[in-house]
Amino acid sequence: MFERFGNLPLHVLVIHLAVVALPVSALTAIAFAAVPKWRSFLRWPALVLGVGALVCAFVAKKSGDAFVAALPQLQQLVAVHRSRGNLLLWFVLAFTILVVAAFLLLPTTGRGAVAIISRPLQLLVTAAVVVMAVVVIYQTIRTGDAGARAVWGGTLPKK
Description:
Layout: E1 4-5, E2 8-9, H1 10-34, H2 39-70, H3 79-105, H4 119-152
Antiparallel strand pairs: 1-2
Helix pairs in contact: 1-2, 1-3, 1-4, 2-3, 3-4
């Protein structure tokens, strides 16, 4: 199921989505959590992108596992990339849980906006979302870098 899309390895397609979607999701969540006046506008996009990031990271991991299973000679070459990708999935899971919590707990601005949690807890949720979002961006870059080094060896081919 996770091996191919048409005649292409699914992983090669999904990683490009992950490299864009995970940082966009993280930046949206940071804006949602850290800028109260933007919360009403970013509430649903932050939730949808947060859950989408988890789906994307999961499919990237499963398709990567299927890719290596189809070409076992790659196992050692992509070991660092795979390890970082596994860690990234856990980070994205934690991030998504925090985004859902922020969606449910952080008050939006506007008429009738009511805080359902105390101010210190709001600050804690906000800080947790921001920190985890930064971790997701950082780990996405590290994972992508390890994958690119496995494929390109740190250099681009000559023209």
